[in-house]
Amino acid sequence: MTNSMNSTDIALPENDTEEDILLSNDSGDDDEGFTEETSSAAELASNIRWDSALDEFDASTQNLSGPDVINAFVKKLPNSPGVYRMFNGEGDVLYVGKAKSLKKRVSNYARGQGHSNRIARMIRETTTMEFVVTRTETEALLLEANLIKRLRPRFNVLLRDDKSFPYILISGDTRAPGIFKHRGARSRKGEYYGPFASAGAVTRTISVLERAFLLRSCADSMFESRTRPCLLHQIKRCSGPCTQEISDEDYAGLVREAKAFLSGRSKAVQQQMRDAMTAASEELDFERAAIFRDRLSALSHIQSHQGINPQTVDEADVFAIHQEGGLACIQVFFFRTGQNWGNRAYFPKADPSLSAAEVLGAFITQFYDNKPCPQLILLSENVEEKELLGEALSASAGRRVTINVPQRGEKKDLVDHAMTNARETLGRRLAETSSQARLLKAMAETFELPFVPRRIEVYDNSHIMGTNAVGGMIVAGQEGFVKNQYRKFNIRSTDITPGDDFGMMREVIERRFGRLIKDHMNELETQAPKALTEGETDAEEIADDSFPAWPDVILIDGGQGQVGAVRDILTQLGINDKVISIGIAKGVDREAGRERFFVSGKPSFTLPPRDPVLYFIQRMRDEAHRFAIGTHRAKRKKEMIKSPLDEIGGIGPSRKRALLHEFGTAKAVAGAALADLRKVEGISEALAQTIYDHFRDQ
Length: 698
Hints:
Elements: E1 4-5, H1 41-46, E2 48-49, H2 55-60, H3 67-74, E3 82-87, E4 93-99, H4 102-109, H5 117-125, E5 128-133, H6 137-151, E6 167-171, E7 179-182, E8 190-193, H7 199-213, H8 220-225, H9 231-234, H10 248-262, H11 266-282, H12 286-304, E9 316-324, E10 327-336, E11 339-346, H13 356-367, E12 376-379, H14 386-397, E13 402-404, H15 409-446, E14 451-452, E15 455-464, E16 467-477, E17 480-481, E18 487-490, H16 501-526, E19 530-531, H17 538-543, E20 553-557, H18 560-572, E21 580-585, E22 596-599, H19 612-640, H20 653-663, H21 666-670, H22 674-678, H23 685-696
Parallel strand pairs: 9-12, 12-13, 15-20, 20-21
Antiparallel strand pairs: 1-2, 3-4, 3-5, 6-7, 6-8, 9-10, 10-11, 14-19, 15-16, 16-17, 16-18, 21-22
Helix pairs in contact: 3-4, 6-14, 7-12, 10-11, 11-12, 16-18
């Protein structure tokens, strides 16, 4: 059995725990059935050939599981580094691990004793395994982490919040470079500075940098089409390069200063400004001196809001972990060019039996999958295989990466500061989670549910007279709102009467649950909700960190009509008995606190005005309302700024920019003569004819 897997990402894996102990000294004298990879780590992740040990084992292991099936594979494993996957009977990946010696590592699982409960449970569920041999253990590390990020095996430590970080971009592909917030692939030419901990931190920094260096932040299309300075120039946040309010040479000087400041030469930049301010004052040019004064004030504002700015650390990421109540919190601080660029808290999915060092080591290997690695990484725990991890990160970054656990000095102070934040953040998370668990249990009792809901989905629609109609779905669970599970639905049906809320809700539910049935039907059958029992503790509920794709309860913002439409769709799909639907109708005079609830098989009812469950449901309903309205506004805004040029085939961003630069506005393009269109750079005769005909045929 040979499978092919493709990937373009290289990540770093988690370190194994007790499985790392190599007890077997058997030599692998039979490498039959394996293909040794000789490519680079990146190529290795792109072209994986998996082997199930040997084809003759396929039939003999079909009825085996646990240590027996693992023993069958061990006999033919080589003493080579590589990666292995463990599968259950349904074909789900249970665990991905790497090994310096596949034979020695896998033989540990076959012992059948001395394992933790987590490992013993994983072994019992294993029905088959697959392997790939690599040239080195470093390649195995890279490949293992890449697979963990893609496959998300249940028994691995998982990085659950893995959004890419925002950066500041100073573009380099226009006459006057602009300063922008950037997230994603670095495909645009220019200088990138970051990462920053949040988009808000980037926005605040850019706002101050505009005042300090007067760089433009407008879109290129707006920059090319301006005929007079915009408001930002009037309020002294832009030097106005669009209309030549500043010469290209002077503007280039401002760009150099901004790059120098973001590159860590802030003191030199500030000293230059002080000297220029002093010189202007001596020349009695007080207006120019005031400009330098305001720019200096803006730079001081940035540094005063950065908190810790280390003197001995130029570029580093600082990791600190704290464990409590079955959960772990990892705080990551980012220091670049000697400046603090923010921090972010993570709550990785990990078995409570794992130590802090094991969780932290596993976290780091996945953290740098889609992020650049700094020269120095400071840790609060001494992780296993630290040297190997450093080698793998160095190979991925293309330069030396050092991993340290500082014991004294300023670096130790940075780690301690991160640890304090991790401890306080986890304390708040535990309090919130405990409160959320109690509310979920109270909701189950109030609505007489047969179980405590783990996943609640709330639906709402938003439109203006039927235009730009969207449906919104928000998700709540034991840890509060799960924002990475939110979904929006652009209403597509042309048969729906504009403003028909019932029809829009039917489309949203059909699409949502039609996709769920296709992708997650097995989960509905195997992951039953947790029944209400007496004597459970909040800690036990917190430790149960599984989060299903199927909702246990759906809340509909509407009355009997909307709920009836939803139930009809669920009945047609054959899942009406598997999902509980509850309607929330506005109270008398649409007054908050007097909502009426509709549950199948019961008369409608209200809750006491001060009932905590009522507040809980109101909060979820309001969040769904906020999300739906926000999505609708974004769609409407995009529609409002849509250019007529976007409707013409063959007109991309570059040609659109060239046309606007030549004619100024889309209206002028529409009225342009065919001969003038042909003169625009990048516009062929055929395309010019297409543009000309497009506006004449309307």
